[in-house]
Design a protein that fits this description.
single chain; about 575 residues; alpha/beta; six-stranded parallel sheet; 20 helices; 21 strands
Length: about 575
């Protein structure tokens, strides 16, 4: 019999999964759902101590003898405060005690409700960290709860050991209500330090490596990743912000954009996902991985910070070390079959972009991606500019950045300008009108040189808020903020930039070469597009690469036109 409270069920299941057996329980009402589950499960050894002050010190004594993390649990109201003296001793003694406190639902805090003081306001030197579980009312709460319990338990022994608070909110109507069920399946997250023995089985596994935002790899990093990839069934998913190209790299953003979730889950998902670097800024990738479902694959995060970052709801292992150490340590001795890479490479080769795109960010990317001078810097404003340029390949010598860490509209121009003063290389920025005018004062910075090239795609609004919308809401006035500025000519020229503009494809093509070339002045090229053209261009790309079209291209690329006819005959099409 277990409580009907889902957060308490998840807590109990993960205590067992992490082998936390010893629990000191103090009496009360709000923590009854937790205590009931503990006392009825032979896995746990429970100790009853009425005074919470004594209970915490008692738990310290257990740890000193047993040498394993110990849990305590108390009710709401004043009980948590009585833990403070013992927690302070545990903090300075580095004793890993999981202080499981109970509280009323958060809505009752500071509302003169009975027994509902703030339970998570412990002193800074009482616990290493406080974790407050959500009340579980949907799938997102469940995932959040599971991650927090794992994170709290891992924090007990992360770095210097010490006490951690884990607060569990309860509803009064849940108290005393039980289910005759098994504890729910939970995903256990483990953390491995570089000096520990690792549980990292990779044989016969399809491995997907995702590289997020990263500066260009050092030779040591590149060699380590290549050595690992050579000896396992690996493909490396990268985008422009990864700043990495290798033998097994695939740029599959467009393929993922048009792929059905079911097809990804059945055919293309990995057995093991390994992530390095920061944010990807890649919505198609996130959506396919997140839609695969919990327990669909293992996610191994490799990072020196050792943090619990569960981007795709499948995190199982954290390796707290430099990724080059991780890859060198797990590299094999023999070259492997690369069927998984070949599968993704075929998918990448099957996609294509129509030639007749209307004047739009996508059209500009189509015309410029192969012409950006080698060894240039290329920055993207978030969302529309980054999305469209991610569909086109770039020379491996081009270094790319975007403000995807915090994902805000501000600062993309300033970041590029900061880079430009520290190099003599050409520094390009692709930006929209709202992002540009938001940060346009930066053009007046007095340190600027003549190596800046800004492609300003002016569609007259925040087109992100208008694309693919079928409702009748007025979006121009305030949502998409249309009509704030006619053009950038005056400010660009005042700031010492050469200003070029294009209203159509012919005008753009006429000034394209000048924009890409060396010049005595930095250049702003403003191209005027429309929200309708932006939407039409994206729809054309999407329709051209729908799953059905892509499958035909894959068959043609492998078997030729004759093969397509044979397959059609087999299928009766």
């Amino acid at each position: 019999m277990y409580t009907i409270a889902k957060n308490a069920q998840i807590l109990l299941a993960l205590l067992k999964a992490h082998n936390i057996r010893h629990v000191v329980a103090s009496p009360g009402a709000t923590n009854v759902p937790i205590v009931q589950g503990l006392q009825n499960d032979p896995f746990f050894t429970c100790y009853s101590v009425v005074d919470e002050r004594s209970a915490m010190y008692f738990a310290i004594g257990l740890y000193l003898e047993l040498g394993v993390p110990v849990a305590t649990t108390c009710t709401s109201a004043q009980a948590t405060r009585n833990y403070i003296p013992g927690l302070t001793e545990a903090f300075y003694k580095h004793v890993p005690i999981l202080a499981i406190t109970a509280s009323k639902h958060p809505r009752f805090t500071y509302q003169d409700y009975m027994q509902a003081p703030n339970q998570t306001s412990l002193p800074a030197d009482a616990v290493k960290q406080t974790f407050a579980l959500p009340y579980v009312s949907n799938h997102h709460d469940e995932q959040h709860c599971m991650r927090l319990v794992n994170e709290a338990i891992l924090e007990l022994t992360h770095g210097l050991p010490g006490p951690v608070q884990l607060n569990v909110p309860m509803l009064d109507e849940e108290l005393g209500k039980w289910e005759d069920v098994q504890l729910p399946p939970v995903r256990v997250i483990r953390r491995y330090m570089e000096w520990e023995q690792w549980d990292a089985p990779l044989n016969n596994k399809k491995i997907m490596i995702v590289i997020g935002e990263h500066r260009p790899f050092t030779e040591k990093q590149a060699v380590a990743l290549e050595s690992f990839a050579e000896t396992h069934n690996v493909f490396v998913y990268a985008n422009h912000l990864s700043n990495h190209r290798s033998k097994y790299t695939v740029f599959a953003n467009l393929a993922l954009l048009t792929m059905h979730d079911e097809v990804f889950a059945k055919t293309y998902k990995p057995d093991i996902l390994i992530t390095i670097g920061g944010q990807t800024g890649d919505y198609p990738l996130f959506r396919r991985l997140a839609a695969a479902g919990q327990f669909a694959f293992e996610h191994w995060r490799v990072s020196e910070d050792g943090k619990v970052v569960d981007s795709y709801d499948n995190l199982t292992k954290i390796f707290e070390c430099p990724f080059e150490l991780f890859f060198m340590r797990l590299a094999g001795n023999n070259s492997a079959q690369h069927t998984y890479y070949q599968q993704w490479e075929e998918l990448q080769n099957a996609v294509s972009i129509p030639e007749n795109l209307p004047l739009s960010n996508a059209y500009l990317a189509q015309q410029l991606h192969h012409a950006i001078p080698k060894n240039s810097y290329l920055n993207f404003a978030i969302l529309n500019s980054l999305r469209k340029w991610s569909l086109f390949p770039l020379d491996k010598s081009i270094t790319c950045y975007s403000n995807v860490a915090a994902f805000g509209i501000d600062g993309c121009t300033s970041v590029l300008l900061g880079q430009s003063v520290a190099t003599d290389k050409l520094c390009f920025l692709v930006t929209g009108d709202l992002a540009f005018f938001y940060d346009m004062n930066s053009l007046g910075i007095r340190h600027l040189k003549n190596n800046i090239r800004i492609l300003l795609v002016n569609n007259g609004c925040g087109v992100e808020f208008k694309l693919y919308k079928t409702d009748n809401i007025d979006r121009d006035s305030y949502i998409a903020a249309a009509g704030h500025s006619k053009n950038a000519k005056g400010w660009a020229e005042t700031s010492g930039f050469k200003y070029l503009s294009a209203q159509n494809k012919e005008e753009f093509l006429a000034c394209k070469a000048e924009f890409l070339s060396a010049s005595e002045q930095s250049i702003v090229l403003e191209v005027f597009t429309t929200p309708e053209n932006e939407a039409d261009a994206f729809k054309m790309i999407f329709d051209n690469n729908r799953e059905e079209s892509t499958n035909k291209k894959m068959i043609r690329s492998i078997f030729g036109d004759t093969g397509v006819k044979i397959v059609k005959n087999i299928l009766g099409k």
